[in-house]
Amino acid sequence: MCGVVGIYDKGNINAANGAYYGLVALQHRGQESAGIAINNDGIITCYKDMGFVNEVFDDKILGLLKGDMAIGHVRYSTSGANFAANAQPIVIKYKNGSLAISHNGNLVNADLLRNQLEDQGLFFSTTTDTEVIAALIARNYKGDIIEAIKKTLKTIKGSYALTILTDNKLIGIRDGYGFRPLVLGKLENGYALASESCALDTLGAQFLRDVKPGEIIMIDKDGVKCFETEDIVPKKVCLFEYIYFARPDSIIDGISMYKARENAGRILAVEQPAIADTVVSVPDSGTPASIGYASESGIPYSIGLIKNRYVGRTFIQPTQSMRELGVKLKLNPLKENIKGKKVVMVDDSIVRGTTSRKIVQALRDAGAKEVHVRVSSPPVIGPCCYGINTPTREELIGARKTVESIREYIGADSLGYLSIEGLLTAVGSKGEGFCSACFNGDYPL
């Protein structure tokens, strides 16, 4: 999971500023590195580094990035280690020019393709699958960038939402299954691409539409052109976008993230009722579901955990020790609303279990009489191949333990999960159109 943006702002040499604000809006999608590549009269330059967007860029650096086309990236590493060389965008130069590329997703055949290219004498400067995509596009280029991209997309397999910068074009691509989101918006003098609609809102861009699965969007001085890239395959948008990753004020493929999460909480209250005095959320991703749970159950909602806004998302920290420390820094119980009460704690998911265990204990230390944990998604039983950092079943508590064993591990008085049927109902589906592999092992690719 990463965040990508693309800006084509004709006549405005400060397109990097737009990319910057778009990346700030997408900071929740990646917190390890940030970067912007800019096109200035056909010359592509890039600045990137480790850290948050506002740590990597300041007015001086943005002032040096002049040009009317830009792409940007915030990184959450799944393929390739977490170090500076793997920060994006990646810029490559080849005999026909240069290009920059930002990638949200994960290729399942990246290692195979990398080995083949290295056997043919190609050298790589990073360990990311993104550089493999860039190398293939450059290798396939014979004067027509769209044909080079189409040929590349027939070779790569996996999830990808891409923004690409060439010497005179901004290009956006979404994989044929639509695993990862990508949206198109209209600026006053151009267009914007972004992982989520919330970035378009920040930029003041008019939302036009979602990029369709298997579609290439090409933007240049002549406007927007669209190309179909793939044979028709079943649409499989990642359900975790709706549960956790996307911002609640975003809309993906016509579905409000907030409404889907609130619906999930309402259905959870019906499927997994509890006798309690108050409902609290694990902020912020669990808040819409907790509001839905409280509304449906009639149990009053109250603020039970205060979030430190200066700590990032613990689930997407790269190491377990960092996640555990992040929980302590991030959340602190509000004792006045918890002491002596039976508490329903609503969270969006339990992936590894360590976070839930520490939060339950914190609520008990704050004086909670009982803690009943309710989860607005099913147990995560399978690793994700498409961009979420759960590479092995051993890391997933839902794959190793029964619900009762998980309850004992996290120290809750009771534990209830939303059914997969309930989750699909919450997003307005009977099963079609979504990837649910992490919940049922049904991998589409």
How would you describe the overall organization of this protein?
With 445 residues, the chain is of the alpha+beta class. It has two domains: 3-233, Aminohydrolase, N-terminal nucleophile (Ntn) domain (Glutamine Phosphoribosylpyrophosphate, subunit 1, domain 1); 255-440, Rossmann fold (3-Layer(aba) Sandwich), CATH 3.40.50. The protein is 31% helix and 27% strand. The chain contains 16 helices and 23 strands. The strands form six sheets. The chain has a seven-stranded antiparallel beta sheet with strand order 3-2-4-1-10-9-11. The protein has a six-stranded antiparallel beta sheet with strand order 5-6-7-8-12-13. Strands 17-20-21-22 form a four-stranded parallel beta sheet, sandwiched between helices. Strand 9 (183-187) and strand 10 (190-194) form a beta hairpin. Helix 1 crosses helix 7, helix 5 crosses helix 6 (145-153) and helix 11 (320-330) runs parallel beside helix 12 (354-365). The longest helix is centred in the middle third of the chain and has 15 residues, at 257-271.
Main sheet overview? 7 strands, antiparallel
Helical content band: 25-40%
Strand content: 25-35%
CATH fold descriptor of the largest domain: Glutamine Phosphoribosylpyrophosphate, subunit 1, domain 1
> What value does the Rg take, in angstroms?
22 Å
Helical stretch tally: 16
The gross shape turns out to be elongated
Assign the CATH superfamily of the largest domain.
Answer: Aminohydrolase, N-terminal nucleophile (Ntn) domain
Query: CATH class of the largest domain, anyone?
Result: Alpha Beta
List keywords for this structure.
445 residues, alpha+beta, Glutamine Phosphoribosylpyrophosphate, subunit 1, domain 1, Rossmann fold, 2 domains, 7-stranded antiparallel beta sheet, 6-stranded antiparallel beta sheet, 16 helices, elongated
